[in-house]
Amino acid sequence: MRSLFTTALIGVGAGLAASFVMDRFQDVAAPAFGMDGGDDDPATVKAADTISEAVEGRPVTQKHRGSAGSALHYALGAAIGAGYALAVRQWPDLAKGWGVPTGLATMLLLDDLLVPAAGWGPWPKAEVPGNAYGLASHLVFGITLEGARRAGEALPA
Predict the structure, then answer these.
(1) Farthest CA pair distance, the chain
(2) How does the average pLDDT of the chain come out, rounded?
(3) What percent of the chain lies above the pLDDT cut of 70?
(4) Are the CB atoms for 111 and 134 separated by under 8 Å?
(5) Which of 84-90's residues contact partners 24+ apart within 8 Å by CB, and which partners?
(6) What is the pTM assigned to this prediction?
(7) Per the count of CB atoms within 10 A, which of 5, 93, 110, 157 is most buried?
(8) DSSP the chain
(9) Which range of residues forms the domain containing residue 23?
(10) pLDDT tens for residues 84-99?
């Protein structure tokens, strides 16, 4: 059996891959779901502002807003990936859903609860395009996460 560190590292890689695939999916799918992005900063940029204000006493500079939001998105994906890989190691049945439950959980816990509770975005509303876009994006994340984790686990130890 692989070490806990190796399992976590596989999860980090899987989380980074899932974050990348989710980003590319959103780039392509946003117009189909009627998502134009609007003028408001994404939740990741607002979260980066919160962290920057706590650490440096000021929000992220205009020049670095996009990269700060992306860095936060990928860091969160990596952390979720590590946690997921370690959880599957302990409870292998978690992988039976091919990442779908994990994708749903990330949507519900992050987008629908944490983001609005922190003031980084609105509370969920009963609007089909936005909810379908979020659901599809997080299913892509979860399925990719599980696929990449399995691929990492299949590599020789």
Answers:
(1) 49
(2) 92
(3) 95
(4) yes
(5) 84/11, 84/14, 84/15, 84/145, 84/146, 84/149, 85/7, 85/8, 85/10, 85/11, 85/14, 85/149, 85/152, 86/4, 86/7, 86/8, 86/11, 88/149, 89/4, 89/7
(6) 0.91
(7) 110
(8) ---HHHHHHHHHHHHHHHHHHHHHHHHHHTGGGT----SSPPHHHHHHHHHHHHHHSSPPPGGGHHHHHHHHHHHHHHHHHHHHHHHHHH-GGGGGGTTHHHHHHHIIIIIIIIHHHHTSSPPP-S-HHHHHHHHHHHHHHHHHHHHHHHHHHHS--
(9) 4-154
(10) 999 999 999 999 999 9
Q: Domains in the chain: how many in total?
A: 1
Q: Other C-beta atoms within 10 Å of 22: how many?
A: 23
Residue 136: half-sphere exposure toward Cβ, Cα within 13 Å: 17
Q: In which residue are the tokens 């992220």 written?
A: 60
75: left (phi over 0), alpha (psi -120 to 50) or beta: alpha
Tokens of 152: 């990492």
pLDDT (0 to 100) of residue 121: 87
50-70 per-residue burial string, b: 16 or more CB within 10 A, e: under 16 = bebeeeeeebbeeeebeebbb
